[in-house]
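Entry 12.
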Amino acid sequence: MDSIFQALAHETRRTILDLLREHPGLTVGQLASHFDVSRIAVMNHLGVLEKAGLVASEKDRRSRRLYLNIMPIQLIYDRWTDDYSGHWAERLASIKYAAEQAAKEKK
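Predicted 3D structure (tokens):
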């Protein structure tokens, strides 16, 4: 999971994921045209994303088509969002109970 967080920590890599979500099957050249950095820099970012399992690619003749793999993000969502949502639901229930008790005591 560390490699996923590391990959998501960089703004350019998050933008790459957004582009691949909106335009699945982009080639490396098409993807690189969206950035003001070199194609090599984009390929380095793609390497980090592929290592984290966030991008999958397939060979299409002389080019490589890129696709977003949402499963690692789903794992983060399942692991972190569900756990923390549960934590806050318990806290909110406690605050609601305390507010109701305070309202009863005022009457």
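Annotation: The helical segments are 2-8, 11-22, 28-32, 39-51, 71-106. Residues 14 and 38 are 17 Å apart (CA to CA).
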